[in-house]
Amino acid sequence: MSYQDAEFFKELLAMFKMECQEHLDTMDSGLKKLAESPSDAERTETLETVFRAAHSLKGAARTVGQTDLEPIGQSLEYTFAKLKQKDIKSSIEIFNELSSLLHEIISKLSGLLTTLNEQGKLEGDKMEIMRLIDEVNNKIGLMGE
Question: What is the number of domains present in the chain?
């Protein structure tokens, strides 16, 4: 890789990290808004917003070839899609547990992004994030039962 290509890639990764952090911030603030027991319309709109942020995070990872982050984005997108299909209003206890786990996922993912080196390799642990996502999806499966 030439010096110019390496510099371009370095700049691309910096923009990618900033974009991902914006998507994580959107998800985080959306979860906080959902915890405030919004109206049905606001809840629907907020869930759509966090779903789109997860979708955009997945797309951004795919665009820069982040094959380690793309499946995490895909899993978050799937999680929010499942939440959109469930009645979270009637399962507030489960949602509070989910919210705590989702905030933890977002925090760990934000930390993971800081380990992205100049060659585009993540040096942090992705498995804990995937384990937490699985735990969230198991709890979502309990909603409405």
Answer: 1
DSSP state of 124: S
Phi, psi of 59 (to 5 degrees): -65, -40
Res 91: pLDDT: 61
Nearest to 51 by CA among 87, 80, 83: 80
Q: Which amino acid belongs to residue 104?
A: E
Tell me the pTM.
0.87
Query: Are 111 and 58 within 8 A, CB to CB?
Result: no
Distance CA 23, CA 44 (A): 18
The domain in which residue 19 lies consists of: 3-142
Residue 103 has a pLDDT of 94
CATH code of residue 83: 1.20.120.160
Neighbours of 125 (CB within 10 A): 13
Alpha helices in 36-91 (DSSP H): 40-63, 70-85
Q: To which residue do tokens 């507030």 refer?
A: 92
Spell out where the chain has E strands.
Answer: none
Question: How does pLDDT run across 43-79, given as a tens digit for each residue?
Answer: 899 999 999 999 999 999 998 888 888 889 999 999 8
